Amino acid sequence: MPAKIVMIGGGSGLPVIIKPLVKADVDLTAIVTVADDGGSSGLLRDYVNIIPPGDIRNILVAMSTADQKLLDLFQYRFQTQDDFLAKHAVGNLLIAALTEMTGDVSEAITELAHYLKIKGQVYPVAKQPLVLKAKTTEGHLLSGEAAITAAHQALDTVWVAPTTPEKTIQANPEAIDAILSADMIVYGPGSLFTSILPNVVVPGIKEALQVTPAKQVYIANIMTQKGETDAYTDAEHLAVLNRHLGKNMIDAVLTNSTIVPEDFVDYQRWGEISTQVKQDPDAISKKDAEVVSRDFLLLRDAGAFHDGDKVANVLLSLLEK
Fold it and tell me: From the record, what ranges are coiled-coil (predicted)?
């Protein structure tokens, strides 16, 4: 039986690792955040009252074995001058439409997964949109993922809340089952406070992560994130993740050892003033986690990214241990 790997996160980082893993002999599941309230996803969650579809769309494409022309259409985003369709991705609209038609987002995802011939499973962490809340290191409270990101303030803690006080948060039972039956849980890569932790802190998910027998791996970011994780080392990222998990749950940390050339990253293009995440292997070891330091760096498009093939190979080797 293929080993079961569960990826947890959101944003653009997860698909980079998923694409090469799809080619391996593994049973792959992605659990994605439902707290995104910006861009096309934010508009659709407000107007159609569905979970934000953007991260789900990107994961479906990463897992797909369908014709590239179909994937290009699914990912196509309308131009800014197209009035009310401006900036909406076709895939987001299809997820919204199928959710209305079936009455259940899981059924909508299952149907799209069939059309796109995906290899794996995609589960929203909850079947309802959630609001991300944050407390800064100075004690200020922030609400909404887009607002938290835009604030560029150092964060201490995040949690999720229902969209209205009378609602209760219910974790997706499919996500819980996947966590409990996994051989490996992989966090990231992605924004610590706005892509990874919004999944971890969902009631029911957190408890499942505390009791699963799976090996738990954190892929440390290559660059810090403006405001949120300025000057964070890889060990400090790990400490925040473990604190939100409620205990030291991470068994291994994948951390990049290659230097990012100072003049390569176009910070203006990527909208951030960030620095390379520094390594602190001793502090990681004190958290009872194995340090896996490798060259994971891929330089492209004037930015520093993870090389998905290199990361996937290391994950597969950890599975064999």
Answer: none
